[in-house]
Amino acid sequence: MEITGKITYVGPVASGVSKAGKDWNKFNAVITEQEGEYPQSLCFEVFNDKISIALGEVCTIHFQVKANEYQGKYYTNITGWKKEGAQQMAVPVVPAPAAAAFEPPF
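Given the sequence above, the corresponding structure tokens read:
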């Protein structure tokens, strides 16, 4: 599954240590479609810096969607695993001031 849109939210990073003793980190992000009358948003997780995303960038995110059962209840996980076609937001360029002519003091 994949969605093309703009990254509208990047959450704080959570981290910990697994039962096997390996460090992990994750964060949530939201991508919002830019086309259509009713744009849809999707919240997804990124584990262990699998992809890097920035707030405001336009890209295509590929997802892995799976459901897990725990004590008779089902939970859905949406994980981003690949990013394509990132377009960075234009950063305004401010020209440097003109250098004053340097004259030695003697």
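Residues 9 and 17 are 25 Å apart (CA to CA). Try to locate this feature in the token string yourself.
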